[in-house]
Amino acid sequence: MYQGQAYPGAAALRPVPLWLVGLVLASVAALYVVGPALHEATIPLMQDELGLTRRDEAVARLVGLPVALTTLAVVGRTGDLRGRRSVLTVSLAVLAAGCAMLAAAFSAWFYILGRTVAVAGLAAVFVSCLAFLPAVYLPGRIQRVVGGGLAAMSLGFVAVVNVAPRASSVAGWRATTAALGLGVVAALLVTRRCLPETAPSRVKPLRDCGGTTVWLTAGILAAAGLRLAPLWGWSDARVQALLAAAGAVMLSARLRADLTRRRRAAARRQPAVPGIVYAAAGAAGVAVGFTQVVLTAAVPTLTTVAGGTPDDGALVLSAFGAGGAVGCLLVRYRRVTPVTGGSLGLPLAALGTVLLHTVLARGGQPVGGGCVAVVLVGCGTMLAAAPRMAQYLATIPRRHLGTHAALLPASILLGTAAAQALPHASVLEDAPIPDEARGLLWIGSSVIAVAALLLGRPVVALAVAGAAALQYVLAGTGPDQSVTAVAALATGAGVGAVVWHRREQAEHLERTRETAVALQRAVLHPIAPVLGRLRLASSYSPATVDTGIGGDFLEALQTHYGTRILIGDVRGKGLHAVRTVTDLLGCFRSQAHETPDLGELAARLDRQVARAAAAHGDDELFATALLLQFGSPAASRVGTGQDGFAPADPGDVLGINCGHLAPLAVSADHATRVHDVAMPTLLPLGFGTLGRIDADGRTSDLVRPFRIRLDTGTTLLLYTDGLSEARNSSGEFYPVTQQLTQAPQQDPEHLVRHLHDGVRNWTHHLTDDIAVIALTPTGPA
């Protein structure tokens, strides 16, 4: 069930296992790949029976692309306002109607109409599935879900490319198209049965209409120019005017987005999605669409020239989906970052394109060598695209999921249109001859190389591009063995240099990680699971991951005066706060064993921070802290908050709160209850307010600890503000209290683990350190 893995708003939805939701969405989204691939296989049969010309097909594509872009924007926003499941079921119904119209087509114009309806349905289905993911899953889980969903779509591409030609030739194109429509109807029934309905957004329908309209206009103009270029020619003034107008509108949209972002920042509203995230996601989508079309146009021709059959060409082409599935599964299970995916995946795809050109040009083993090369292209392309798409979906605000999610399929469509506008990939021309097919592959490798420079590390992309160029020289040198040897040595030396440099970087990174771990262990000692009569559990997550420690601190010690616990937060983050944390913890570890009075111990910590501020020349240095003591002697005197001072009970927790968050008490009698522990709050450490040294050198005017009753079965939770102030993509704070009530068990270990996993699912990027301690008595006093 959801059980804290989804947004709080999803708790009101019909309880459905999340794995089932992901499976249904992946299966339905696969229609976006299966439908076009099946249609491409049936086009020759349709042309023969209906008398379709290439110009009719061009007109269908010309009309379909603007309709698809408009559908993406409209359906995405409608899902925000009306609910995801309702819009997805309507989209599936439209797609089923389009399939029925295609199966019953009797003329060219009816075919164009049916295809337009089907294209609109496919676009609506895909954008609804994409927007469904961040509406149900937390940002920290988006990458795993996107990786699995794209892997399923890639495997669907493998199946349909190999099965569709045979099925259409045996059963006919009408029966095949009708079977697809029946599959869509089955998906509609499963969707209504298994998917929950999401809560509609409360945002006004036209609030973001201006920006969406501008981007949609730019996309339609660009799509029209790309589609008309094969019909009118690239030199036609009308085509150039459309493309120039699209560029101008995109520039104005960019300027408008920058102005809106500055206005929101000035008004201190929720920050907009960074422009680099938009650009990277769009570039990844364009690369995917462009690469797939180039392979579809070039691979069958080159496979046939190399000695293969049309079925062999379909098998080699389907290897793109197999490689894509491998890349997506790596993203799902290895948590590949966007930069790593771009740095490794796109150069790998470029190398695979060059290798494909070489293998199919030489002949011999077109199926085996071609499949290996295409697998490299598919794996590299999706290894780069999937993390970018996941990052984008995890970043966009939940109130505008549909509108923003439309960028991903729109960029894929524009990449497809750009590739189909090339002279030898246009539907108006015959299948390319071998030289034209090789030219398409070189264009594809150039586009992938540019994407590698944009989305990954340029040094890696350039190194792999150099190796690929030398590989081509090696394959094309002919019988001259001396040149071949030189090329082989150069290629080996270049690849060896890259590998050596990469190994040194890996070793340096490993040394850095070992240093960070040693630093964390030296400053933050592990807290024992049992101290005295307390069971404890703790967790520490620094915002600066590679340092291992930040500005938060925590410690628990068993002393002659009971179990003493300290948790707090130094002003600032990262390495500049480590020095103060080290001084403060060192003072606590030495003085906790020597100072009987808890108020005196707090005063000494206060003076230590003040001395550190003077030594560092930082007048604004302070630290919030919560100091607790359990199992204190009966002679200790505490403040009651009402009647002065009273002797402490051995079952009490004595506490002094210096500007820190109040602890939470978690009890589980019949139902889990969580409440704040009310206690006086003093100024943070470093202000010199916890006691003054008199003429005899003794501390006077000490603050008395406050008494907290801790019953058996109650867990006390201490935490820093990094936990409660962790934000998701919509700017919502992590609901600590609500997450505690949803914890399956209330013992310290499970509570801390539940919060640690929950906050990492809640946000895709920690901006502050997080320290948590949970404690409970082991038995009655």
UniProtKB/TrEMBL annotation:
Keywords in alphabetical order: Hydrolase, Membrane, Transmembrane, Transmembrane helix
One Pfam assignment: SpoIIE
Q: Which residues form the PPM-type phosphatase domain?
A: 534-777
Question: Has keyword rRNA-binding?
Answer: no
Q: Where are the transmembrane segments?
A: 16-38, 58-75, 87-112, 118-138, 145-165, 171-191, 212-233, 239-255, 276-302, 314-331, 343-361, 367-389, 401-422, 442-470, 482-501
Q: Does the keyword Membrane apply?
A: yes
Per its record, how is this protein called by name?
A: PPM-type phosphatase domain-containing protein
Q: Supply the source organism's classification.
A: Bacteria, Bacillati, Actinomycetota, Actinomycetes, Kitasatosporales
